[in-house]
Structure formats: C-alpha cells, structure tokens
Design goal:
3-stranded mixed β-sheet; 3-stranded antiparallel β-sheet
Length: 401
Amino acid sequence: MGKALSQGDFSSEELTRELLGQIRSQDQSLKSFITVTDEEAALQQAKAADTRRKSGDASFWTGIPIAHKDIFCTEGQRTTAGSKMLENFVPPYDSTVARKFREAGSLCLGKTNMDEFAMGSSSESSFFGATSNPWDHKRVPGGSSGGSAAAVAAGLVPAATGTDTGGSIRQPAALCGITGLKPTYGRVSRYGMIAYASSLDQGGPMARTAEDCALMLNLMAGHDPQDSTSMKLEVPDYTHGLDQSLSGLKIGLPREYFTDAVDPRMAETVREAIRQFEAMGAKVKEVSLPHTDLAIAAYYVIAPAEASANLSRFDGVRYGYRCDAPKDLMDLYTRTRAEGFGAEVKRRIMIGTYSLSAGYYDAYYRKAQQVRRLVRQDFIDALADVDVLMSPVTPSVAFPR
C-alpha cells in the first residue's frame, strides 16, 4: 500500500473509503472492532495525507490506515480495554505508540476488540462481545489481541497494534494465520498502554507478513523518557536482512515443545516448515528447556499479582465507571469494582491479591519469581548453542467458541 500510494496508483482517500466500507459490511458479525473512527473525520485525515504526498512532505506511513488494540490510549477517541469499567473513557493524551503512528501520517480507523484488560486467550471476555475467527466464525481468534488479529486476517486493515503479556500477540496471530511479534521487553514504550502485568506487558506489531511487521517495528521501537522501563538502544532497520541466506543458521527445537499434547496437525505443519528451512541451508538441533512445565504456573502467580496492584486504580473516584448513589466510600469502592469488572478480571484480581497477602508472599509470589529466573536461564543456555528456537506457537488449532 505504501508503494502504491507513493506511485499514485490510488489515493489514501480511496483506500480509507474502501476499508471503512469493508468494516461496515463485515464487522457486524466479526466484532473485531469496539470503536470505528468517524468516517468523515477519517476521510478528512486521508485527504490531508494525499495533500502532503503531492507536496512531497510525506513519510512511508503517510496515508496508510491501521487500527490500534483498544488498550492503547488515543487522544479524543474512546479507549476501553474491553471493559465496562472504561466504557466511556476518552483519554486526553496519546500513548507513545499511537503518537508515533499519528506523527508519521498513519490513519487510525478504530480500536480493536480484546479480552477485558488483556486477560484471556480467546477474546471472549470482552464487555463488548466476543470476536469471531474470520476463517470460521464458530471458532475463537485467540486473545487477548484477537480483534487486531481478526481485523488483519479479514482484510479490514493492513496492520494493527497488539500487546503481549503471556502470548497475547503470538497466539491470536497463529490462530488467525497472520504474523505477530512480541518484541524484547523495553523495546516498545508502554506509556499510555493500559497495564495488566507491568513486568511482562509489551506492545508489538500484527500484520500479514514479516516485512510488514518489520516496517511497523521500525516506527514503534525506540527509547521513551516517559517510560522508565524503555531501553536506551538504537533502533536498527528491522527490514534489513529479510532476504539474506539462511545457510548456516542454527535452529534449536525444544524437545519439551514437541510432545503428545501438540495437535499432530500442528506438529506436522511446523515440521514441514523445518524441512523447508533445512532445504534452504539451515542446520537443526534438538535443545532442552527443562523448566518448561513450571512456566505456566509461575505466570499465573506473577501476572495476577501485578494485575491486582495495577487495577486498584479503578475505584470510581478519578475516572472510569462509577456505581449509582453510593452510601459511603466503601460502598463506592466495592460496588464500582463489582459492577465494572467482568468475571475473568475479578478472578485474577483475587488470585493476585491472595498471592501477595501476608503469609503467602514468600510461598507464592517470591517462589514464582525464582522459577521465572530458572525459565529465563533455560533460554539463555539454549541460545548459547543455536541462533533461534522454533516451535509451535500453540498446541492446537483455533478452538470452538
């Protein structure tokens, strides 16, 4: 699209009008969007982008429409995190990711559906309704970035942003048949990205191809002084080397990821890809990640613990949902949170609060952090012998809703 716009094959206004029409006709059943940008406003932005291109004052992204997961704050446009708690929240500022795309000239066509506060792997826990997989509406698109994955797979937008805490970009990308990437923690600013588990959350790109994801990451990555966890590293050109030879590349296959728990169809698909890489000159070696069976348990202590702290800010006092006619302060807190949060969010808050409570912190949260270190060391050890690891993203195909 960027090349076609630069060559004048079509205008941004024509492209935007076409995609908005696709969203209108398809998304009622798909439910990949929570909020769609006002058509008149979007077309005005597209016309302005076309004017900039004609004047020669344009970047690669000028006039290219995308969508943002509804967890990135967008100034003047509703941002809900898929929750009743933020149903009517309109941020007064842009997240760093949204600002970078806006300043580069990209157009935001809307905010995509998601599991509430990014807690889920099926996009069924959204207050605004479940998203369908565009290849089979009776199946899930994955989650929590299921709306972004579904919108890209259905051709409603060429690319969308997502966030990944425990697989929330990678899993829906796999289940919808697109490309998704969780960048290294700290590569993409978390400023203005509504927090779930702060030590794990990371924004990333979702698109049709690796090249499109590289183009997105070129824009999204970079140090941000407004995010204390943002890394001070130069941003390379992620498109560089996409076409270089794979000869001599050492691929590690973790034996713990190829078990009987993996759907045979999934395993065979991955093995077929491995055979293709070998034909292109890559070398394959089995490696071990011995603490794999502990990783999910550690995640489900650490992530809810951080969520219970992060979501304490939603109390009916400052912004977001507020219960009607509270009797006193405690009634305001309890009814606001009981009415504003969905069942999955409540479960994770309770688990997290329990694991952080006096008498259980050392037994659960501290122990989970120690296990996390062991899991991390497994990857460091494995990558000392190979260049990359390759495995199925999920153990099964998209499951029924």
